[in-house]
Specification:
The protein is of the alpha/beta class and 229 residues long. The protein has 7 helices and 6 strands. A 6-stranded parallel β-sheet has the order 3-4-2-1-5-6, sandwiched between helices.
C-alpha cells in the first residue's frame, strides 16, 4: 500500500437496519456494532493509522426514541468501564469530541476517567464523537474566541483550530461511511474539507477488517491535489 491516511473518520451507519433485517430490536444492532468498532480499531493499528475518529452520537440523534437514546448512553457507560483498561494496555489514547456537558453525569465521569487514564499513551489516537455536530463545533469555537477576547487581526485557519473540541486532531484524510448513504451528516465539517470519501453498502455491524482494507486500498489509489495540479 503506497499511501496510508493519517486520519480516518468513520460514520458508523446501519445498526438499526441490521437489526430490523434480522427481526431483532434496534438495540441489538447497537450491541453488535461494538464488535465492528473493535475490529476497526485493531485494523487501524495494523495499518499504521495515527488517528481514528468514530461518529458515535450526533446532536441530531436526540430526535430518536427516548428509550433508544437512554440505551445508547448506558451501552457507552458499560463498554467504556469494561474496556478502558484494555485500551490503555494497548497504548491507545482515547479522546471525546462534542458537547459533553449535556451527557448524563455518570457517562461524563467515565469519559473523564478514560481520557485521564490514556492521556500519556503514544499509540493510536482514538476519538469518539459524542453529542457532536460539525456546525455546533464551529459555533462553540467562535464563542470561545469571543470569550477569550482573541485579537481578530491575528486569527487565521491555523490558530482557529485551537478553539475546536479536539485541536490536536489533524485534518481528515479519509471519511468512510457504511450502509449506503452518501453524505457527511454534520460530521467534522471543518476538518474534512479535503478528505477523500469512501462509501460502502455494508451495514456497520457487518463491517470487517477486509472492508477496512478495501477502503484503505481505494485511498491509496486516489490522487490528492489539494487545489493544485
Amino acid at each position: 500500500m503506497k499511501k496510508i491516511p493519517e486520519h480516518v473518520a468513520i460514520i458508523m451507519d446501519g445498526n438499526g437496519r441490521w437489526a430490523e433485517a434480522k427481526g431483532l430490536p434496534r438495540v441489538s444492532g447497537h450491541k453488535e456494532g461494538l464488535s465492528a468498532v473493535r475490529r476497526v480499531v485493531k485494523a487501524a493499528k495494523v495499518y499504521g493509522v495515527r488517528y481514528l475518529t468514530l461518529y458515535s452520537f450526533s446532536t441530531e440523534n436526540w430526535k430518536r426514541p427516548p428509550d433508544e437514546v437512554k440505551f445508547l448512553f448506558m451501552l457507552m457507560e458499560s463498554t467504556l468501564t469494561k474496556e478502558m483498561e484494555d485500551l490503555h494496555s494497548r497504548n491507545i489514547r482515547v479522546r471525546f469530541a462534542g458537547k459533553l456537558d449535556k451527557l448524563p453525569e455518570k457517562l461524563q465521569q467515565i469519559i473523564a476517567d478514560t481520557e485521564k487514564l490514556t492521556e500519556e499513551n503514544s499509540g493510536l489516537n482514538l476519538t469518539f464523537a459524542v453529542n457532536y455536530g460539525g456546525r455546533q463545533e464551529i459555533i462553540d469555537a467562535i464563542k470561545k474566541i469571543i470569550k477569550a477576547r482573541y485579537p481578530i487581526k491575528h486569527l487565521d485557519q491555523d490558530n482557529f483550530r485551537q478553539f475546536l473540541y479536539c485541536p490536536q486532531l489533524p485534518d481528515v484524510d479519509l471519511v468512510i461511511r457504511t450502509a449506503g448513504e452518501q453524505r457527511l451528516s454534520n460530521f467534522l465539517v471543518w476538518q474534512s474539507i479535503y478528505a477523500e470519501f469512501y462509501f460502502t453498502r455494508t451495514l456497520w455491524p457487518d463491517f470487517s477488517e477486509k472492508d477496512f482494507k478495501m477502503a484503505m486500498d481505494e485511498f491509496s489509489r486516489r490522487k490528492r491535489r489539494f487545489g493544485g495540479l
